[in-house]
Amino acid sequence: MRMGIRADSVITAYNGGFRRFIMQENLIEQIEGKMSEFSKSQRLIGNFIINHYEKAAFMTAAKLGVAVNVSESTVVRFAIEMGYEGYPEMQKALQNYSKNRLTALQRLDITNDRIGEGDVLKTTLTQDIDRIRSTIEMNSDKEFNKAIDNILGANHIYIFGAMSSNVIARFLDNYFQLIFDNVHFVQPINTSGILQQMIRIGRGDVMISISFPRYSKNCLNATAFARQSGAHIIAITDSENSPLVPLSDEKLLAKSDMASFADSLVAPLSLINAIIVAVGMKKREGLEKTLEKLEEMWDANDVYKKDL
Question: How big is the CA angle at 302 (ends 298 and 303), to the nearest 5 degrees?
Answer without folding.
Answer: 60
